[in-house]
Amino acid sequence: MGKLDGKVALISGSGRGIGRAVALKLAQEGARVVINDLDQEPAAEALAAVEAAGGEAVACNGNVTEPDFGERFVQTALDNFGGVDIIVNNAGYTWDNVVHKMNDDQFQAMLDVHLTAPFRIMRAAAEPIRIAAKKEAQEGRRVTRKVVNISSVAGLFGNAGQINYAAGKAGIIGMTRTMCKEWGRYNVTVNCVAFGLIETRLTQKMEAEQATIDIEGEEIKVGVNPSLMDALTQMVPLGRPGVPEDAAGAIYLFCCPESDYVSGQVLVCAGGLLM
């Protein structure tokens, strides 16, 4: 018996990295999972991994910044599993530059993926959650649902070259605390995890030829200078960068029953690093 048996979890950006680790973790605890990725291949691989581990999953692929994505994401959960119990707003990426070299599109892209997309997903889930909570109250049952939003130490303390990313990640903290107050009456906890240095494709060490990711035809450089990566690692009190499984564990803390009376909080998962 898993602690999340019978729960339905929606995890954006769960085809790889942190999101994939979260999907596997929640599925291992019994949750049925709706996986999402911008690309078909990683989503299919993550779905197969969940099923190979004995879990249930379906995919809802596409760009979370599309105006209709929130409705499509939530409806996938309703159509396949009959409800919504956990939402993890994880999808995102970085697109760095100093302020005088950053154009409007680059700035807005970070707000779109880190703020507007989570807003639309939660808005789409509001009515199904309200209806379910009302029915449960009439039956004398208390069912606690969970939302976990993803921030960063950049959103808490700022980071040079990331005015767009830091603004989005600071904004999701305000959104978290607002939704905690709005949805408490429906027995929904809304919390936030702020990550430090976690090893993913976005934080890989730069090689001779810098890696890029493709976002709707836009080639965006990713990676960290090796010397900077080494310096950052030395600053982490635990002595190492985190891995996706570390990140998934922090998110799981807010999804499990033991946190049913914790809401509106920001948990820093950074190995002790406080910038």
- Strand order, sheet with most strands: 3-2-1-4-5-6-9
Provide the succession of SSEs: EHEHEHEHEHHEEEHHE
By secondary-structure content and strand pairing, the structural class works out as alpha/beta
Helix content: 40-55%
Using brief descriptors, characterize the structure shown.
single chain; 275 residues; Rossmann fold; 7-stranded parallel β-sheet; two-stranded antiparallel ribbon; 9 strands; 16% strand; globular
Briefly, what is this?
By secondary structure, the protein is an alpha/beta fold.
Describe this structure in words.
The chain contains eight helices and nine strands. The chain is α/β, with parallel strands linked by helices and 275 residues long. The chain has a single domain (8-196, 243-269), classed as Rossmann fold. A seven-stranded parallel sheet has the order 3-2-1-4-5-6-9, sandwiched between helices. Strands 7-8 form a two-stranded antiparallel ribbon. Strand 1 (8-11), helix 1 and strand 2 form a beta-alpha-beta unit. It is globular, with a radius of gyration of 18 Å.
List the helices and strands and how they pair.
Layout: E1 8-11, H1 17-28, E2 32-35, H2 40-52, E3 57-59, H3 69-81, E4 86-89, H4 104-138, E5 145-152, H5 153-157, H6 163-183, E6 188-195, E7 212-215, E8 218-221, H7 226-235, H8 244-255, E9 266-269
Parallel strand pairs: 1-2, 1-4, 2-3, 4-5, 5-6, 6-9
Antiparallel strand pairs: 7-8
Helix pairs in contact: 1-8, 3-4, 4-6
